[in-house]
Protein: Oxidoreductase
Organism: Devosia riboflavina
Amino acid sequence: MTDELSPRFAEDLVRARVEARLAEAGASEASRAAAIKAMIHASLVGVDSHGVRLTGHYCKMLGGGRLNKNPQLKVESRGAGSAMVHGDDGLGHYAAYRAVEVGIELARQAGVGAVGIKHSSHLGAAGAYALAGAEQGFVTFATTNTDSMVALYDGAQKFHGTNPLAFAAPVPNARPWLLDMATSSIPLNRVLLHRSLDKALPEGVAATADGEPTTDPHEADMLLPLGGVDYGYKGAALAGVATLFSALLTGTTLDPDFIPMYGGDDISTPRNMGHFVLVIDPDKFAGRAVFAAAIGSYLESLRGSRVRDGGRVMAPGDREWEEMDRRKAEGIPVDPDTVRFLGL
Amino acid sequence: MTDELSPRFAEDLVRARVEARLAEAGASEASRAAAIKAMIHASLVGVDSHGVRLTGHYCKMLGGGRLNKNPQLKVESRGAGSAMVHGDDGLGHYAAYRAVEVGIELARQAGVGAVGIKHSSHLGAAGAYALAGAEQGFVTFATTNTDSMVALYDGAQKFHGTNPLAFAAPVPNARPWLLDMATSSIPLNRVLLHRSLDKALPEGVAATADGEPTTDPHEADMLLPLGGVDYGYKGAALAGVATLFSALLTGTTLDPDFIPMYGGDDISTPRNMGHFVLVIDPDKFAGRAVFAAAIGSYLESLRGSRVRDGGRVMAPGDREWEEMDRRKAEGIPVDPDTVRFLGL
């Protein structure tokens, strides 16, 4: 875990070291380029849990055989607006970025491209793929299901993963509107951080092994869905939306059925993870010019709206772009284990 | 507002009276049939705020000229997977149900149908349209933006509407998986109910006119987004997703720019409300049989999962279907004003 005390390293240096490690581990040039792009995105916008710290994990899984070093992606067209990408059990980033490209090609003609991904693996931050579509001018949605870690509403077991929903939209003369949210209130990393600091958690974000809400990070065994104790049925249902699109529509693995990402003995069996990407061409709806004017006006109205004392109103992505600017200038903070692994 | 003391009336009687009032108000047969279907859906599943109580409001707007009594819908094809429906300023339910049908036609061929709706009006419960797609075998998403009522994270003004996100999916031999959620924690009606009962609100669901969180229903001036005081940036961003799809992509009215639904002087100017419907054919992804087995297995696993003491785990929609069974047996509760208006 990174914190304010973590040493910082220049983006280019970090990138080069990640590249070297993944190459040594045998990942093909194309698949490692995708993984690096996604990890550096996460590390720049401040999502360290999905950033370069995963390099060691991916290298281990490439060595163990869970991940195919030289995946050959297959794109199966299913209709004028739909396709499936077969990830060939390689690094999930590779299949997911390809799905965005396929979605864009479909959307240019059909107005929309819906692309399921199967036989994939961990894809890092889902926002990286929503962003990839938005950077090319398309409204993009990306989601995945993940290992069970979050209770259902009133549940007493880990059921859904932290199942992210990521949306991005192009903004004229500015960086995209970008939402990349877990459907739990906090990530597991936050619990681990509070545990190491012996610091209480906020209310309604974690539960004991019996599903009882707790603020004690040492007692916390699972996360609670967004909405907390009172409205967690909404967060749980949104986690279900991620599973619906990523696993049920693609015929891949359900959250509770995954071979554990970490900590299990099996690092040789592929996990058949699914994801889903939806790409929409604004040109086929209001038209690109009207859309651009509308989102500009919307963001101006949002950023200019009245703020409560001591607060600050931001659009989704604003915090991430600020953090990116800071990290491009001051470097990417890297945790001690990853510093050692990357030889920084 | 309905409560446990509200008198109940048989569905058929209520439906007949709603039909009579809308016919008297001049709504065309097709447009009132759609409105009735959506209102009865909401009244049966327990979403009374969007149920038959709106009959009087719609009749007033049909009389005032805001709503076109005899709308001629236009469907503009935009690509193999995309279309726009022009609602001709009629009852929004009519345009929204048509959009679902258009989406299904597109999805059967293209695998996905993305349909924007413009020049529409209030559509009632967004879940009605997600459900309409699921009942025909399609995974369906429906959303709309609405009048400003919810603060931004750290905001001190009403910005987004309660902007619902509705998803539904077909389940073999059972009623659909159905999520219809506001992106605020509670609806405005809940505040009004607590105000009339002089009863404190839960924490983190409402704010004063200065954006300060309050549990005092008399001080509450706006709603807070899902996620409450700590994680409301997620709910605010999800409200933005509804606006992105419904208003920005369709070129229709932004939440703060709507002529007020209620309480304003102007009941003659159409509001140019937008919505968005997305329909996906499971047959073009995992295939219908694999999808059916997967969602069956997922729901079995969910409903059989461990429950915390005194709790109950449900899938999205389970509560609604139970309420529907109860109301079909015991009748639909109707508030006093609506009892008078419908002559019950």
